Amino acid sequence: MTLPPRSVPGTSPNLIVADVADLVRSGRTRISSPTGADLGADKFVDVRWLLVGPLVGSRPDVVEFPHGGRQRQWLFMHPSSRVAFDVTVPEAQTFFTAGMALRPEAWYTDFGDGVRFAVDVAVGGATPSEVYGIRLNPRAFPDERRWVEVRVPLASYAGRQIEITLRTDPVDDVRNDWAGWGNPLVVIDRTLLRPPNGPIVPASVGTRPTFPR
Questions:
Q1: Which of 83, 88, 136, 154 is 20 to 30 Å from 19 at the Cα level?
Q2: Superfamily holding 11-55+63-188
Q3: C-alpha neighbours within 13 Å on the C-beta side of residue 190
Q4: For the segment 114-145, what is each residue's pLDDT rounded down to a tens digit?
C-alpha cells in the first residue's frame, strides 16, 4: 500500500515526496565517498544538525521553523562525495529543495576556496545530467554565510521514476570543505506563488462581495 506524502512542517500546502536525510539514515541511497558508504563523525558523509545563525532569543531551546529555519538537519558531504536515490515524480509541481551551507567554522579560516554543489538527474539508467550547480565560498564572500536556498523544478519528469544525485566537489583546495545540504527534500509545492514582477499576494482573501443587479 502506497502511503500519501506527509506535510512539510510549517508549510502545510507542501507535501514531502522524499526526505533525503531519512533515506540516507535508513540505507536507501547509494553513497560514494573516499570513506565509502558508511556514516559517522569521522566519515565523509553523515547526517547531523547544523545551526547557521542564532536561534530566537526568547525560545533558545526551540528550533525555529523546522523546515526552513536557522537550524536544520544537515546531510554532511565532504568533497568529493555523491549521494544518489530513486524517486517517482508525482506531478508537475514537484521540486528538489534544500539549503546549502559550509560549517560556520569554515567561514573564518586562513585557507579554503569553497565547494561546488551540484544536482544530477538520470532517467532510465541513462548518463546523469547536471540540472543545477553552484560554487559557494563563504570564507571569501560574506553574503554566502547563510543557508543558500536551492529549488530545482522536476516538472519535466512528472510521472516518471528518476535518479537524483547530490554532489559536492572540491575547487582546488580541499581544506576546510565542511559542506552539506540542509533539509534536502523532494516536495510537491502547492503554495500560492507570486509571478516575477507581479503583485504581492494578499495577506488574506475575504468572502467575494455580491452586488445588487
A1: 136
A2: Galactose-binding domain-like (2.60.120.260)
A3: 12
A4: 999 999 999 998 999 999 999 999 999 999 99
